[in-house]
Design brief:
Strand content: under 5%
Number of helices: 32
Largest sheet: none
Radius of gyration: 32 Å
Helix content: 55-70%
Number of strands: 0
Length: 681
């Protein structure tokens, strides 16, 4: 529940603002208002037409593009003015973007789209409003095109120039892209301070958005690989069926079903949009049937005034008091009312007690509110250590404002050691869930579900450049599953190289599956930029070392595949020195997992065979390999066969054959080196 005030985190906003000023940031330019003329009224009509064309693009792209072309002609015929140029720049920019979608989908030349984007930049830099395309949107798209070599020769310097121009005009996508590039040194010098400047600007927009849209549902950030293996593609159908079941049960007098249905409308689920009016009605019906937890949500809706419901603190207080005494939502709501004296006598001590109890019951909002109380010093003595503790708890559950405040505490050294890296990482966490990421994720999903996978992939590339990890792994997945075909209009990287780049970026952000995939790419020698079809021995050695490092990163996180692959590398000596003892350790850990149990046990049999070979060879040479012998004996202590007995017999026969051949080879070798009488020694 978003029962918080903007002033409650103003202290931290002021801190970040001062940091921004010290870093030389400038305020985003704003449009000036002026009296409406006949020309302005006509331009307003064109603005509405622009929005209409944007809205209908996904349903009827041809009609939307025709509408934009007509708008261009009408606007070009008007007398030149700042307002006219602003809208025309928007039209050029949006037309260019949509043409890119169309041309990329049809694998056609994108020169027409780039021309429209260039026309947009010539007119709209610094003055284009955010009707649909956004400040500096054309510059940002051109930056993406040149940085990735989409149907042009790759030119990182040119791409960066366009991105800086877009960020200077207030484009959030460009700010996040530059922040990510500087944070990781991608084509630019690695600089946490420079990344901080860009992320701070983007975060200011994000926190304002979280305040304005508190209570609205964020879209799910689904991984395509997860959907393949867990059948999440059908989750929307399940959500609709679930809602139908709850409605049916509620009609037959089940209060718990009505309460659950109210939560579906309150939070949204799958394709079911948030509808607070329906939620209010459903919760009221559940409350009439005795479901007292419903009162807490009814109180919340009245306290917030969601979706046209009139804000009424008196009603909210009465419903909060009707709810269960151990309901965290009710306790947090009452705490807010007592803190500010809304319809109840102001009592900061009671507010604190209510927040504390709600926090113990798991309320994210209550934890954030406790952080505010300890940090702003208005109600209690400042205690940044405790504030940090509560903000951390709230941030762990994706509370946007708590994450922002944590970032500011790290950047300013409040209650924690000053750390640019940690602060910027928190800012990135915040902007990765901002409105611009949510909207672009929804667009990519809509395009993919509409059968336009290549256009969807283009949007994922945008998100990938912004540093959004889910988009990076999804983009690589689409390439590997050939969802965008065999070719991509790239003037720089092959599709395999593009997949590898996205996987490497995803793995650097902690994606274990991506670590394994990157290891596979280097093991096979695929997708490495500038690499010929055949590898030299030195290149293969370097690639195998890199593959091993990624498998090790996955194994360190107990990934079954990572453990198995690392065991294999030590078994055959690829990328590492052969070490059967370490190989056995990793295969043992892999065998303890459900996913790799059977292949790991079979691999252990092979390791046992190699150990047996070593023991026999040592005996022949008159030596004793005690370590290999001890490892070999450990195989038969509590060992469970991985396959049927007949298979084991077959494998054993192969081992016996290998041993006999080895003995024969060793015997011949020794015979060849026997010194005959009369020969020099």
């Amino acid at each position: 529940m978003g029962l918080t005030r903007l002033m409650e985190w103003a202290f931290f906003l002021a801190l970040c603002f001062s940091l921004a000023l010290s870093a030389g940031l400038t305020e985003v330019p704003s449009l000036t208002s002026k009296s409406l003329t006949a020309l302005d009224l006509r331009l307003r009509e064109y603005e509405e037409a622009l929005l209409e064309a944007t809205t209908h693009f996904f349903n009827n792209s041809a009609a939307a593009l025709e509408k934009l072309k007509q708008l261009e002609e009408n606007l070009e015929a008007l007398e030149e003015s700042e307002h006219r140029n602003s809208i025309l720049s928007e039209v050029y920019g949006l037309h260019g973007r949509l043409q890119l979608f169309e041309l990329v989908d049809r694998t056609e030349d994108t020169t027409v789209a780039r021309t429209l984007l260039l026309k947009s930049t010539a007119l709209g830099y610094g003055i284009a409003n955010s009707v649909s395309f956004g400040r500096g949107g054309a510059h940002q798209l051109l930056g993406l095109i040149f940085s990735n070599g989409i149907d042009v020769e790759m030119n990182m310097a040119k791409g960066l120039l366009y991105l800086h121009l877009a960020a200077g005009a207030g484009n959030l996508v460009a700010m996040q892209t530059l922040g990510y590039k500087h944070l990781h040194g991608l084509g630019v010098p690695r600089s946490c301070e420079t990344a901080q400047r860009h992320y701070l600007r983007a975060a200011e927009f994000a926190v304002a958005e979280f305040e304005e849209f508190s209570g609205r549902r964020m879209v799910e950030f689904l991984r395509l690989s997860d959907m393949e293996y867990s059948n999440k593609a059908s989750s929307n159908v399940f959500d609709a069926q679930m809602a139908s079941y709850y409605a049916y049960a509620g009609e037959h007098g089940d209060p718990q079903a009505l309460f659950s249905l109210g939560q579906v409308y309150y939070k949204g689920a799958g394709e079911i949009e948030v509808d607070h009016k329906k939620a209010l009605e459903t919760f009221a019906n559940a409350a009439e049937l005795g479901e007292r937890n419903s009162y807490c949500y009814i109180g919340t809706i009245h306290a917030e005034g969601y979706q046209g419901v009139e804000q009424n603190y008196e009603l909210a207080a009465s419903f909060f008091k009707k709810g269960p005494s151990n309901n965290a939502v009710c306790l947090n709501g009452l705490g807010f009312l007592y803190l500010h004296g809304h319809s109840v006598e102001r009592n900061k001590t009671k507010a604190f007690q209510l927040f504390a109890k709600a926090s113990e019951l798991g309320s994210t909002e209550a934890r954030y509110n406790l952080g505010v109380l300890y940090s702003d010093g208005e109600y209690f003595e400042k205690d940044f250590s405790k504030a940090f503790q509560y903000y951390s708890l709230a941030s762990n559950h994706h509370h946007g404002l708590a994450t922002y405040n944590l970032a500011c505490m790290h950047l300013g050294g409040l209650g924690v050691p000053k750390s640019c890296q940690t602060g910027v990482t928190q800012l990135k966490r915040l902007v990765d869930r901002s409105g611009v990421v949510v909207r672009k994720t929804a667009i990519a999903r809509a395009l993919r579900l509409g059968g336009r996978s290549r256009a969807s992939f283009f949007v994922l590339l945008e998100l990938s450049e912004m540093g959004f990890e889910v988009a990076q792994s999804n983009a690589a997945y689409m390439i590997e599953r050939k969802m965008i075909g065999e070719e991509w209009p790239s003037g720089g990287l092959s599709l395999e190289s593009l997949a590898l780049r996205n996987l490497e970026r995803s793995s650097s952000q902690g994606n274990i599956v991506s670590h394994i995939s990157v290891g596979d790419f280097y093991y096979d020698g695929r997708g490495i930029p500038g690499r010929q079809s055949t590898r030299t021995d030195i290149q293969r050695h370097d690639d195998l070392e890199r593959a091993t490092s990624h498998y090790r990163a996955a194994a360190d996180n107990r990934s079954p595949r990572g453990l198995f692959n690392l065991g294999y590398m030590y078994t055959v000596g690829d990328g590492v020195t052969e070490d059967l003892h370490l190989a056995k350790r990793y295969f043992d850990m892999a065998a303890a997992t459900k996913e790799a149990q059977h292949p790991a046990r079979i691999a252990l049999v092979l390791v046992a065979g190699k150990l047996l070979f070593r023991v026999v060879k040592a005996e022949i040479m008159g030596e004793t390999d005690n370590q290999s012998l001890a490892e070999l004996r450990s195989f038969f202590l509590g060992w469970e066969p991985p396959v049927e007995l007949s298979t084991i017999v077959g494998i054993t026969s192969i081992f016996v054959g290998v041993v006999l051949l080895t003995l024969r080879s060793v015997s011949r070798s020794q015979a060849a080196h026997i010194v005959q009488p009369g020969q020099n020694t």
